[in-house]
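so the lab meeting is tmrw and i was supposed to have these ready like two days ago... anyway. pasting both below. for each one the top line is the aa sequence and the line under it is the structure tokens. i havent really looked at them closely yet so no promises
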Amino acid sequence: MDRVIRNALGLFMIIFVVFSTVVSYQIVVENAYRTSLSSTYTYTCTITTDSPLYNVTLFIPVPADSRGNSPIVERFSTHDIAGLPDDWTATLYDTGKATMVRITTPAIVPPGRTSPKNPFTFTLSSEMKSDTVIDTREPIENSAMFRPIRDIRQVSCPPDSSLINGTPRCSRYITSLYADYQASPHASVMITSSITGKNSWKIFEPGSNEYSSSFSQLLVGENRGWEMVNGYLQSSIGRYDVPDILP
């Protein structure tokens, strides 16, 4: 009987040690994740032209979530956008379906050596921290995207996506922008914008996950109206083997 009791106690101690080790490991992992976690949005908007533009008015989508919350809005409101020229006026508009920034300027006159092979570029950019973990798996529903979003369709990811960690998902969609300006018939204007949401942490080694969305539109000659724009989304990039953080 004593031997049975000793064996039972020994087995109990082994189970207890294993359980304690697992719990301790989970606590260490969760603590490392919580204390090192950083969530950031990176935004860029690039306007490129090879010719002078006059009486310029642009309505360009600003990334926002499905409820209209945008990490970029405050930056435009406080003029805390790197690269925004002093003679450009940037005003935010909420259309009910999308958040737009209205950019107006009397003229955009490139330097003398500008040409189709050497166009003139303005790049507006901002990087900001998010107070909450960014949903990089379902950004259309829960994170900042260029809206309105129409005709969403899943597409094959580029071949080089096989080099990216995780199992990326790729989609194309339609959004819109407005451009009104005077220019020569051969003027070429490219408007490009992107948003990337990324969560980074360190649990024994660095880890991260992210999504990225962008659109690009080429305009030729004068323009006076709304343009349908092709958008691209790549989500579920990186690692997701991390603890759940509950509110």
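ok protien two:
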Amino acid sequence: RAQGAIIMQNHPGWTRSDLSMMEFEKKVYAEGLIDGIEVMNHLDFYPRAIDRAGEYGLFMASNTDLHTASWEYYGNNGSFRNMTLIFAKDKSLESLKEALKARRTLAYSFGTIAGDRQLLEDFFKASVKCMVVDTDANGTRTVMLINETSFPYYLNYGGDPMKLNAFGALSVSVKKDDALKVKIENMWHGSDQHLEVEYKL
């Protein structure tokens, strides 16, 4: 820390039944030495680490756990490998460090994405366009959701699960004067909290 390092706790849930802190963890957290936490590692996902990130103001990361050459890393059913998306102003080291300190990261692994709730909502609404394509005599709107990214979304609308494919589209019906409210079940901002968004039509 004295040298200006960014310090991240790696795979806190590995080989542990829970995320209760050991004495060493309590000490470094009490001294404010931790900046980020890994919520995904290779195929492992630690939802409770999202809660810790919120509690201690940490950025969230997703990493491959590679100990060998990168070509030995295999994806799962053609999904992208683990990635930490850093929302920096530019590619400079200073800008990257500023973004990490400000917690502007999203953690991605095999179809799942985790992060701060507002950042998830901004990401989703920038990714998915919403437009009314028809209105019937009763005022019920047919709404098209268009995914402009390579990331698929698993939605729940009115209790009905549906998949919005990468670069795909789907339509839903919204009653007159209602807003479109959708839960995105593969976006997490807490150990048991999925992102919910609302579009006023």
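from a quick look at the 2nd one: The longest strand covers residues 180-190. Residues 36 and 59 are 4 Å apart (CA to CA). will dig more after coffe
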